[in-house]
Amino acid sequence: MLKSVQIAAEKIRKLEVQGARNVAITAVRAIETLAKEMKVKNKKDFLKGLSNAKDILFSSRETEPLMRNAIRWIIIQVEKSDITNTKDLVSLVSLASQKFLKELEYSKEKIAEIGTKRIRNNSVIFTHCHSSTITYLLKKATQKGKSLELICTETRPLFQGRKTVKEMLKLGIKTTLIVDSAARFFMNKADLVLVGADAITSEGNVINKIGTSMIALVAKEARTPFYVVSELLKFDPATMYGDYEKIEERSPKEIWKKHPKGLIIRNPAFDVTRRDYIHGIMCEEGIISPHSIIEVVHRKYSWVFK
Length: 306
Ligand code: RUB
Fold this sequence. Notes:
Blueprint: H1 3-13, H2 20-37, H3 43-58, H4 65-80, H5 86-118, E1 123-127, H6 132-143, E2 148-153, H7 160-170, E3 174-178, H8 183-187, E4 192-195, E5 199-200, E6 206-209, H9 212-222, E7 226-229, E8 270-273, E9 280-283, E10 286-288, H10 293-300
Parallel strand pairs: 1-2, 1-4, 2-3, 4-7, 7-9
Antiparallel strand pairs: 5-6, 6-8, 9-10
Helix pairs in contact: 1-2, 1-3, 2-3, 2-4, 2-5, 3-4, 4-5, 5-6
Bound molecules: ribulose-1,5-diphosphate (RUB).
């Protein structure tokens, strides 16, 4: 019964699906499919099925609050509804999933619209890893007639930077790929740093691909404005109540397949950039200060805190 969910979770775990948005979209679709496939007789079992799927998907990648918020929201819709008939519950999940994905799409459009205005013509933009929210923003900015140049890190160990540069070349953007450790060397050539986010904490700190906080340090030293481009639903409400955002640690094999015996290899997937290094968060509500994250999330998505 949970096969479609297990397949989706495996794709997420193996990074066949990459980036917080795509992870959330895949998880939402898996929940929608599961609801259709579930053969249960009552609402209690229906909710139990959704809850099991939630646990599997949540554990596929630890640092993905957008996925968690998405699934939580769909389950809340089922819980608070008066519907008890399972056939109608399937339709409810389907409607809720589509609504969530539509809202996510709206956020992406809005961020692109806002970000485009902030990017000056003939800017050199520095980025790290692959964020679909950023590549979409750069696509829109180019379509609006902004001439851009991009510097992108290759992003060890899994080279997500290659995905970014391929997309940029297709758009005709002049693109330079550098090794991660060349960030300082090239920072003075950039007008703006744009990075994505996997999680935003209640204190306004941002968790993104490993290396992001180092780039933030370098940007600060070089006085290059550093912006995070992120949907508000990457906010993790649990951090407000004391929890730390967990940092996923991946297999050492991603770094060195046949490494010498006894060697310790650490492979955290993400790191934390303190809010002091962030000029602003470009989100669907505008360019906001990391300090105001709770207030803005509360205004737009108060259900997140329930
Ligand atoms: C991807 C990454 C991205 C964010 C934002 O890490 O850190 O910057 O997920 O991406 P990984 P998006 O490759 O390990 O998933 O803007 O697409 O949500």
